[in-house]
């Protein structure tokens, strides 16, 4: 199977199989498309230090923007998206505005998307193999040096919003991305336009002003970076701005007009687990390490580890309304074995005059 007609037919089949596997859209980009602008932007971003402690962002160099350096012989990038907005979840702003509650980014209240997305992409590859026999490919979902948003943009899945996330007219931004690099010469799809216009709501709402301009994110100030990627101490001047966001931050998505089109996921794996959409800071802070490991098994949250989890919750409790219960919870960990946790607990107690 190598004629252009065969490839057109196979492309249609791939899109059909992908939809059956739970993807909401599947598009295809030329792996040798011009990525000069994206590559220059990436290196400028790294040079300014906006990646903070994410050394892996700089480690792989041009492999991110040049697929053939990662997977020799690649011709196409099959880009997919899958909705994750959880059904029946507590309204996000209600949780964010309740200082006693813990806000967890809605992508993380269910199962770990890395496993779900890669497993579905592998099934898609299996469908292709069953149809045409052996072909070369690799599948990814936030798991390798791949410029996911740029390739999704090239493939026509959407456009890059001013907050740097991909936006879709049909699905807003509440979706995961995945890719298959392949040597199949499939017909490519066309990119679409940018539909953000003059809107700056995502820039204006950012609690830490991490979006320093359209399409420019200083990750060192981003709450998602501070609560997930940063391994050490959270800068003191940023702690009050974090509020009760203990794992990630959705503010820029919550105010985006395009998310009125976001669809609730039909994927059971992304449904809320253990009440993480509406839970108190104190309850989570009182979890033992064994409870953390067991309740968050299969969750993306588990990868940050118990120490970072307690660090984040201590900041949340420092920003919570003062109450005997909050102070008691903090004091109970004031002699924690972790210097990182102790430091943030002491800060939190000072916020309450203790």
TrEMBL record:
PROSITE patterns associated with the record: 4FE4S_FER_1, 4FE4S_FER_2
Residue positions binding [4Fe-4S] cluster 1: 196, 199, 202, 256
Domain 4Fe-4S ferredoxin-type span(s) in chain numbering: 184-216
A GO cellular component annotation in the UniProt record: cytoplasm
Biological process, per Gene Ontology: tRNA queuosine(34) biosynthetic process
Entry's EC annotation: 1.17.99.6
Binding of [4Fe-4S] cluster 2, residues: 206, 222, 249, 252
Name of the featured protein: Epoxyqueuosine reductase
Entry keywords, A to Z: 4Fe-4S, Cobalamin, Cobalt, Cytoplasm, Iron, Iron-sulfur, Metal-binding, Oxidoreductase, Queuosine biosynthesis, tRNA processing
Binding site for cob(II)alamin: 64, 142, 166, 177, 224, 249-250
Cofactor stoichiometry and binding remark: Binds 2 [4Fe-4S] clusters per monomer.
Quaternary organization: Monomer.
Gene expressing this chain: queG
Keyword ATP-binding included in the entry's annotation: no
Similarity annotation: Belongs to the QueG family.
